[in-house]
Amino acid sequence: MRLLRAVLPHAITALAAVALTLGAQRFLSSPAPPAPQPTAPAGLITPTPSPTVGVAPTAGAAPSPQPTDAPLAAAVTRQEVIDLRVQDDRLWAAIYLMRALNHLADAEAALRMNDFARVEQILTTIDDALEQAYARAADADRDPIVQIRRDVGIIREDLYLRPEGMDARLARARQAIMTLIEAPR
Q1: Global pTM?
Q2: What pLDDT, on the 0 to 100 scale, is given for residue 168?
């Protein structure tokens, strides 16, 4: 069970990275649909230009450039890449929050065994995971993450001074992280 808890965050991270990579490859490698060519109505005949005498084009002559929608397509692609990066950051923030949640469960188990040194070490690890989540989180989620980090810091400071009620405080921190993960985006 402990091995599963240790491997689970890494497995989730790997799966998310593979899914995002495959999605980006599929999105970026799909060809753009061809632009519709203007056609004349069925009843109208368009005149063709009459041939003129002149120099015949050589094989090395470059074809004339045709107008394309490249600037618009590039802008759309840039926006889609930005959107993918935002989604990637949200996913990483959720992964780091899940990691903090997993560490909180470990801290609660260590607290039940009265292993305060281990609890303190795990609380430091939780703070590190929350710091990484803060770096990737959306602006709206940053303030709650800061508050949770503050609460975890206070719990760590009070661990040896006031250990009573510590399990309830850890449960509140766990609930705050779960609420943040489950918040609609």
Answers
A1: 0.59
A2: 94
